[in-house]
Structure formats: C-alpha cells, structure tokens
What does this fold into?
Amino acid sequence: MRNKPIIALDAGHGMQTPGKRCLKAIDPAETREWALNDRIADQVQGLLTAYDCTVIRVDDTTGGKDVALSARVKAANNVKADMYISIHHNAGIGGGIGGGTVVYYCSSKDERRVQAMHLYDSVTARTGLFGNRSSKVIKYGWYVVKHTTMPAFLIENGFMDSLTDVPIILSATHATRTAQGIVDFLAAELCLSFAQEDSQRPQTGGSTVIGGNHPMDTYYPAYTGPKTTLSAAMTALGINASYAHRKLIAKANNITVYIGTATQNTRMYNLLVAGFLLKE
Ligand SMILES: [Zn+2]
It folds into this structure.
C-alpha cells in the first residue's frame, strides 16, 4: 500500500431522492437520508484531517444531485482508492421498534467479512446502536460494494422508520460517534499515521447541522432504569418533569409544538435512554 492511502467516501442518495427520508409519523420533519449520511461523511472527512491520507467524496456534497452509482464507483476506481465507505440509513421496520446497525460487503474473501465485522464493531463500540437483525454483517451485491475495485463497505446506521432508532439517528452526538467509529476502523485497517502539524491542511467543509451542534455536556445523563414513562424517568434523574419544563426541553430537541402527545413523549424518552436528550 502507498504511504498516503486514498479513502473514498460516499453519502448515499441525494437530498431529494424519492422515499429516502425518515418516517413522518416519527419525525415530522421527514429528515432526508442524504442529510443524515452527509452529516456523518462530513465528520469522517473532518476527523481524517488528523491523519496522513487523502479523502475523496464521490457523492454531490451539496446534496443537489443524486450522483449515479456507476459514477461514484468510477470516481473511486479511477483514483485507485484504498478503501470505499458508503454511508446510509436503513428502512424496513415500518414504524416498529429495533433495527440498528448493519454492514454490507461483497466478496468471498474471508478477509473482507472480517473487515466488515471490524467496521461494525468499531462503530457500535462508539454508538451503542447494535443491530438486532439476523446478521451484523451481510454479504450482498449492492452496486457500490460490488463494482468497486478496492475493499468496499456499505454501512446502514439505524432505521429511518424505527421508533427507537429515529430519535438516535437524528441526534448530532450519534452522528459524531458514528464518524469516530468509522475513523477508528479506517485508522486501524489502513494503518494511518498522524499528519504533521500543518495549518494549511484543509478543514472539514461546512458540515451539515441538523438539530444544532451541541457539546457533549449539554445532554442529560442517560436514563438506565426500568422502562417507564418520560416523566417518571426524568423524576428519577432529578430533572424537573413539569409540563412547562418538558416543553422547553422538547423545543431544544427540535420538537417544536410540544403538546405532550404519546409520540412526542416516546421520542423524548428514547433520547433520554440513549443519553441524547439535549438540555433546554
Ligand atoms: Zn440509503
């Protein structure tokens, strides 16, 4: 391997790709999959500036265009990238619970399956969003993993139609943790060395902010007790659970018109359990 590895990053789809969005019943904003994919890809790119490597994005980083899969593959193959990571979010839970993370690869080499497992482990070690499907890693011929000439992986970071996954995948902290997990994997697999201090190095280009970027200490501690109501969980943590206070917290978490519906409370409860409920 050359001493400056090339990493191809692919945020799946485009902003307006039909159907690729969060389920409206769970996320009234119907956050687009590309926006979630792009937020992670941006952060991976930003974190990788600390390492001696070259990163190319094979999607349209404005989200305006859903770049054809063949063009994405061609871009990565042309520069002879050393690794290809395609970032996606899943669907197929139909408003139910569960889902989690899945990593796809397409090669009969044992090494590739081991790498896919390593990517899954690296990301879930950071995020805690473990998959509850039959397999954590799946061999499948998705176009970008099948037709790229380098080791390629497609990671599905939780389900956009899962009651439990959506509040987590919408949070900025989850995106950051996912990006860190992907970079942990890349640094280990490609034996990346730290870059020399150089102020000329490009910084991450304006990462997409969904629901605001907040430092870690602006979250309430995770509720780890037995399953209960939002108010009871808040009270157990010593948080004022009055309606007025819940309304303020809801606003901080992008629930703009909080009227205390079961869906709104479930969303806030799930955030609290995940440790991603933003303080007001
Ligand atoms: Zn996708």
